Amino acid sequence: MRVAEAGRSPITLFVDGIPAAALAGDTLMTAMLIANRSLRRSEFGGEARAGFCLMGACQDCWIWTEEGDRVRACSTPAVDGARLSTRQPATAWPTRS
Amino acid sequence: MADPVVAIIGAGPAGVRAAAALVAAGVRPVVIDEAMRAGGQIYRRQPDGFTRSYTDLYGSEADRAKAVHDCFDALHGHVDYRPQTLAWNISDRRIFTAGPDGQQVLPFDALLLCTGATDRLMPVSGWHWAGCYSLGGAQIALKAQACAIGRRTVFMGSGPLLYLVAAQYAKAGAEVAAVLDTSSMSASVAALPRLLAQPATLRVGVGLLRDLRRAGVPIHRGITPVEIHGDADRGVSGVTVRTSRGDALTIDCDAAAMGHHLRPETQLAELAGCDFAFDAMVRQWLPVRDADGRSSQPGVYLAGDGARILGAVAAEAAGELAALTILADRGYRVSDTARQDARQAVARARRFAEGLARAYPWPHEQTSALGDATILCRCEAITVGDLRRTIAETGAEEANRAKAFSRIGMGRCQGRYCGLAAAELIAGAVGTPVEAVGRLRAAAPVKPIAIGSAGRCDR
Amino acid sequence: MTAPASSDVIIVGGGIMGSSAAFFLRRRGLSVTLLESDLIGRQASGTNFGNVRRQGRPLYQLALANRAIAIWREAEALLDCDVEYRQFGHMRVCYRTRPELAATMEQYAADARQSDLDLEMLSGNMLRTRFPFLGEEVLAASYSPLCGHANPRLVSPAFARAAQRLGAMVHERCAVTETAKMGDDFVVAAADGRQFRAPVLLITAGAWGDRFAAAFGEPLPLTSRAPNMCVTEPLPYALRPSVGVVTPDTEESVYIRQVERGNLVMGGSFYNPSYPDRYRVDVRPENSLSLWRQIQRLIPAVGRVSVIRTWSGIEGYLPDSAPVMGPSMTTSGLYYAFGFAGAGFQLGPGVGDTMAELIATGRTDIDLAPYRADRFSAG
Fold this sequence. Notes:
The structure holds 3 protein chains of 3 kinds.
Chain A: E1 10-15, E2 18-23, H1 28-35, E3 40-41, E4 48-49, E5 62-65, E6 70-72, E7 83-85
Parallel strand pairs in A: 1-7
Antiparallel strand pairs in A: 1-2, 3-4, 5-6, 5-7
Chain B: E1 6-9, H1 13-24, E2 30-32, H2 54-58, H3 62-74, E3 80-82, E4 86-91, E5 94-99, E6 102-107, E7 110-113, E8 117-119, E9 132-134, H4 135-145, E10 152-158, H5 160-171, E11 175-181, H6 185-195, H7 199-214, E12 219-221, E13 224-231, E14 235-242, E15 248-252, E16 255-260, E17 262-264, H8 267-271, E18 276-279, E19 284-287, E20 300-302, H9 312-329, H10 336-359, E21 375-377, E22 382-383, H11 384-394, H12 399-406, H13 419-430, H14 434-437, E23 449-450
Helix pairs in contact in B: 1-3, 1-9, 4-5, 5-7, 6-10, 9-10, 11-13
Chain C: E1 5-6, E2 9-12, H1 16-27, E3 32-35, H2 44-47, E4 51-52, H3 62-73, H4 75-79, E5 90-95, H5 100-112, E6 120-123, H6 124-130, E7 138-144, E8 148-149, H7 152-165, E9 169-171, E10 176-182, E11 185-190, E12 195-198, E13 200-203, H8 209-215, E14 223-225, E15 229-234, E16 242-245, E17 254-258, E18 263-268, E19 274-275, E20 280-281, H9 285-298, E21 306-311, E22 315-317, E23 324-327, E24 334-338, H10 348-361
Parallel strand pairs in C: 1-12, 2-3, 2-13, 3-9, 5-16, 13-24
Antiparallel strand pairs in C: 4-8, 5-7, 6-7, 10-11, 11-12, 14-22, 15-18, 15-21, 16-17, 17-18, 19-20, 23-24
Helix pairs in contact in C: 1-7, 1-10, 3-10
């Protein structure tokens, strides 16, 4: 939830293809959590995860670009037009043997 | 003689002051920083385009924050600053980094590790639900992003950050549902003589408490966490604790911030070959260093909270002191007065830190009360019961043994957030002192790095 | 001073060889004392890649490998522990830059059939369709459907615990400082002053085995190596077989598998410096980087995947990359099984079973001639 600094210029990201309104200066984490409750799902429990430490230590907030590259949402600035995925895209790793 | 290559890893208060001391002596250090801008976590800067004042951001520490930032800005051109760069391994007096220019290798003559700290966590049932954050994380959301972690937040745990972050949230207009402190008032009173080593810091702490009370925030001391309520899709919905009187208390919220003070980031010190020793006061293994910042490994120095949690003020002094030690060890003439002043500042902070450890003790005994279904390792979703079962079936009594058999601490964070609690749990289950359990070994890369960062073969 | 603890057999070295030998000796009714200087399975046995691979071994070794795989297949029931053996296949591939290796693999497949190892040669569209993750450089593959991989961290401790349940005495953190034969018995002294006595002594001390053999007048040219290993973050489970590159070039010799939880385990390329006396390996970062470059040739998609941990362990090597396995040539009652040259994990249970048979009955069908301890001394 934003508590200040709302006067920055608006940008738009695409999370799983859906537009998400954000502000210049947001991290990917901020931008995505303003739009949704979570960033990704745990590989093991399947529950929603939304980051934990915000300082690049806990590694809970890794998401994907649509091309399949990994990005740590808490420490990556959001740029206008960025296309992100909360699930591993099939382009990054085969989904079956 | 050729100019020595002096590398500093970390650009918080320790790294910045160390860089300044080296530049003052005519040395151009390499400063490796994972962040985009210097300042570290405590004095983390907001991004370009944000407009809040230093006072808004850092409160009573505004002047110090500004001084550290100004100090580093003034070094521009005199340091080889490498932001957004991860030092992922240290081997044979070389630092391996991954950053905007890809993989690089930096041989060094002297290395100063100012790797800072992260929150120390005691698991609570439900701490893996979305909307649960570390206290430090909650603070960074506010400081660096002008965001609160929820609409209505519970702050739970112990230590200086608990009251600081709650007060900052209240001041910023975010709703603070409650402050739930595991430590007791009597512990604070007993710690008072040591806390008086830094009276100004103590005054700030008292002021925070007053601010929270004025804002009408319920504060409960001596609580025992029971559960963070929530579900797999919607995340956190409330917190239940047992009060000091033994009653169950449930508070609705959509976010929880938790932690028990801090722990140093020591992985690089370990990879650099530094010896560690168990510190009974904080119940942690810490890299050994002498009063001037030397580690056990020749040419490797330690400063700031990455070596021992003494706080930002002491980090500045320790950074400067370690830099002066590097210079002295390499034959430069350095001021004895400056070294003596820095040593004294660090010693005062050490006394204060002893007070904090008594006032806000790490509630290690809680591990025995954790339910089997509680997630212990968030990365790998290993539960308390999984670890207990592994210990019972295999007899694993040592931290790395338990890791090998149960996967505890084997995930992306390498045990940063579960390792200390896991060690306490093993110690409790086996009936040994926690130091006998040892500590999870650090392994490169200290944080995940993409295989593709190594480049591809030319063919 | 207390009398030495007596048993039928003392085993020095609690890796997969020693732990499985202890288990099979107990099954044959012999009393066993297993002495491990550190913790069970902590060196090569616990840190290796986890390949349960038969192909690529010398043909004379396949009988032993077959004996081993039969045990792997029943390991869970035998040990009352899931050691994560998954028989999802093992594949060796060669690159287009070395087409001659495809013919070599084909010849090997023809020869191995005589030794009950069925290999399927794959190339072209057939290979791409079945294994779409392979890189363009891959020319051909030799696929063994009835091999697989297992979790090395679990296997040796599981054998040791199972042996203990059957009555074996297992002593961890018990470094052996002296061994001597006195009359019909071996007397073994540990650093902490304890003594053990038995008519049979089996040395399964891996990269540390030579120092025990030397004490009985059998110097062996054993050296140590430390492979380069790493693991990635978890991914959707897609890669079932274990895959390795066939090449004479150490740099490009890499291998990879995926565990069911999703992590990719990989290893290979250059070896790291190792210091057996200090139980220490320097995992050289430049070797990690080399592995990461090479593995992308095999499976390009891994370039986007993050590594979360690197490690190594210490393996013992003899000049011909074969172990010493069998009786001592100088001392009756003394046996060896060490120096498996980084290829002992799959063989381990078969070696333990064979050594137990040899010790208990005085004979075995496994031909031990290639593994004689005196093969390096004959002029």
